[in-house]
Amino acid sequence: MKSISLKTQTIIFVFFGFMLTFAQRSMKLPADAVFYMEINGKQLNQKINWQKLNPLLHELSKNSKEKPSWNDYSKTGIKYDATQYHYASFNDSIQTYTTHFIVDNKEKFQEFINSTKKKGLEISKKKNYSYVDINDNVFVAWNNDRAVLSMVNYTKPYKDIWSDDVVIDSAVAVADSAAVVVDSAYIEPEKPFDYKEEIISLKEDIKYLKDNVRESNKEIARIQKDIKYLEKNHKYPKENVDTQHPGGEKEMYPEEEENWGDAETEIDSAYQKELDSMKIENFKIVKKIAEDRFDQYFSSNLEIEVSKVMLSFRDPNADAYVYTDYGRMVNDGIYGKMMKRFEFGQFFRNAYNSNSYYNLYFDKDKVKLVNNYQHNNPNIQKTVESVYKGKKNKKLAALINDKSVGYYVVNLNGAKCFDMMYDLLQDSGDGEYKKEMELMMETMKIVLDEEAITKVAPGNGIFVLNELKSKKVDYTDYEYDDDYNEKEVKKTKDIAVPDFTFAFATENEGYWNRVFNALSANKHLAKKFSKKGDIYSFKNEKGDGYMDELYFIVKDGIVYLTSSTENLIPHGQSDVSKQWAKDSSRYPLSGRLDVQKLLIGLDKEFKTPSERKSLDLFRKNVGEMYYKTEVKGNSIETEIDYKIRNSSENSLMYFFDLFDEIYKINEADKKPQIL
């Protein structure tokens, strides 16, 4: 008896434990998610100055059709200092973007929703949440402490132009719901007819028509009047050429133009009904998809379960973290079908079969973005890493100078580039030309002397933009008289011409000298390509382009291509440029760009007063950008730093401050000038 009681207690304990676990299950991220993002609200909320941001958001919203009814965006009921989760997925027919966030004031949040939704649109109540459609494809659902925004786009399945079969995937399966769309209609278990639900559905159709179709009827009527008038008179009425403005429309058109034929009216009516039917059909589908996702989430423990792969390189100290599956983006859906049609499509599918991870930081004086690239094939990933392990070249780094606008340095292993190409070609699946591809690769390995090729260009190179110079050039413009007769007009303009040096290392100087000698000796190129001493030059006789003359020289194991022979003379380096040179030798890829110097050089490209004002603003505020790439943590890691140059509280508010100033300049230009 005691044994039976113990077994019964054990069974009950296991049963309730199972029920508890089941009731508190997390919602798994959709299996077809190709994008995932976390917003670190705890950190970002401390960096946002709402006193500055609120007026800007309010100013932007005043241009909307409906009068804004919300002034303080810092008090929407959303818990801004909590983590937000974003993810996106897509297939041939459905694209979704979903955001999860925490609500700390349900009443305030509902007030905010009421201010953004269409007037008269009622909020739908479900068992454990409420929801409303803000737009035709944007839905918001919430309970006491959680909210979800879901944007859903649906495209009716089509015949697959990339294959001979009808799209099997036109039966769109929503991976994380029980709903399945087949030719724009959901197939669900048959239920007894419920006239109440049918009435609710019909009322929703009426609301949709009132909110959407009525708004377009007036515009359709105006366009139809324009068409009829143009057919008869071949021009717009003199009373009001700008027919986009409704004022005076009745006086603008003769009375007889308003009497359209019955046949045309019937066609327009039939077209409008068909258009309305399609909109309603699509709306029902996206609404159903959104409802199914809301049901799944609010029936869970309100936590999101994310795979370890997506979080591989997440830094909890980052302000934002993003994961992207480029392999699925390119290889799935219509892009994947396109690739299958190409003979070497699998090569590109292999090349893009990778994941990228991003950590974004808004520091006090700079914005930092760290990207980790990782191929899904471990063998290809190792080969890619080997490409980024090249030798350093100090001679190239000596070309960096204090006055340079920017530079980009490459220190790669050229020999390993062949291995990477082989790996991508070998893993090409059982395609039509698989055997031919394998034979071609074996032939390449036999014929090509990889060692000799890499001596020609081992993988070290540099591009230095020294400055941008102004130059006047002639050009032909065209003007038109009142009868649209064309007339050529000769004009001059100032353009920015780059003064640069491009150089790369070589272990076979003779090869490049033979190349340049052949070019200078060629009878067709002799007029443009010449040699003086050790320097070869290519001259544009017209002088109407960006490059009047280019110079080539092979010297001390370096091949130079430059816009000026002065760049071939070594320049002294200060402590700053020495540090740049040192950094450029440390990394496989690295670079720097002084955006302020770049804009100063582009001064002549900005003509109008508005452009000049914007240029002055940017020149005062833009900073410097640094770039470096290296192999790190079984990935290719790239870090981009952008140093700011103004008095903003931090680099996040820097962008808002800059946008605010640009917006004010544009708004000032729209106002009529007082004479």
Describe this structure in words.
- Helix 19 (609-621) runs antiparallel to helix 20 (651-670).
- Mean pLDDT is 79; it is low at 1-23, 164-189 and 240-251.
- It is built from 20 helices and 24 strands.
- By secondary structure, the chain is an alpha+beta fold.
Question: What descriptors fit this protein?
Answer:
675 residues, alpha+beta, 24 strands, disordered N terminus, coiled coil
State the end-to-end distance. Answer: 104 Å
- Our estimate of the beta-strand percent is 25-35%
Q: Measured on Cα atoms, how large is the radius of gyration?
A: 32 Å
- Main sheet record: 20 strands, antiparallel
Q: Tell how many strands the DSSP assignment holds.
A: 24
Structural class assignment: alpha+beta
**Oligomer classification:** single chain
Low-pLDDT residue intervals, each spanning 5 or more residues: 1-23, 164-189, 240-251
Query: Overall mean pLDDT score?
Result: 79
Helicity range: 25-40%
Number of helices: 20
Q: Which outline best applies?
A: globular
Biased composition (Basic and acidic residues): 238-253
Region (Disordered): 238-261
Keywords: Coiled coil
Coiled coil: 199-233
